[in-house]
Design a protein that fits this description.
alpha/beta; two-stranded antiparallel sheet; 11 strands; globular; binds 3-hydroxy-5-(hydroxymethyl)-2-methylisonicotinaldehyde
Amino acid sequence: MDYKRVLTIQDISCFGQCSLTVALPILSAAGHETCILPSAVLSTHTAGFTGFTVRDLTADLPGIAAHWQKEGIRFDAIYTGYLGSTEQIEDVKEIFRTCAAEGCVTVVDPAMADNGKLYPAFDQAYVEQMKTLAFPADIILPNITEACMLTGWPYREHYDEAYINGLLDSLRAKGAKTVILTGVSYSEDTTGVMVMEGDSRRYYTHKRYPKGCHGTGDVYASAFVGALLRGRSSYDAARIAADYTLRCMELTLPDPNHWYGVKFELALPDYIRMLEA
Ligand code: PXL
């Protein structure tokens, strides 16, 4: 099996099962050498907790990148998620330029918003900077809210296929290459992902739970990157990531105390089986 080296840049939420604490184990389970660059350290994630601590690591990024360059360290893929500051995005772009191995795939999850709203730490300046990271990337994985913020397309809670096609056209017009648009639902009991690659658009639809879970965007993106680096097509990787994320939700939803994340560890054996099928 090919042994790929992937760098993932996102925060460490010490408690809460999101960002690096899910990306590292999922990418490792997929069989990849997984290197991390923490964008910030938080006591918990910001969705549902109050009074969390945040240490922004923006000042550390240039030194880390310079050391890697000196050591000749290069990555086959670079995958970004929740970042620590607007200013940090320039450093991340520099890392894309200087630490990419030949044929490196860049994947940006513009993790900044959901349900029509920005996460508490971010503002419009962050959105503007995120556009400069996301549009040149090989693959982006926005949800509908993030895609609207990146394009200026009006956010709607209720929509139809024409609306989603307009949103995808708008992403394409701004320069997006491959787009995995998550959380696209046309009925009460189904949801799915739209995979746009050039002129091709394919929809993978699956069961929808009445209630969502925190952290599933990060679980999804990590499982997608893991499968992609195993040589799967974007559509296949999007499908495997969806099936794995659903399994994580199925194992979590019966436990009302586990509101802050998903029990993704319990489903890792299923994920590995999906990658081997
Ligand atoms: O799951 C996305 C995410 C990552 N990191 C932090 C967050 C969130 C979502 O709220 O707060 C710190």
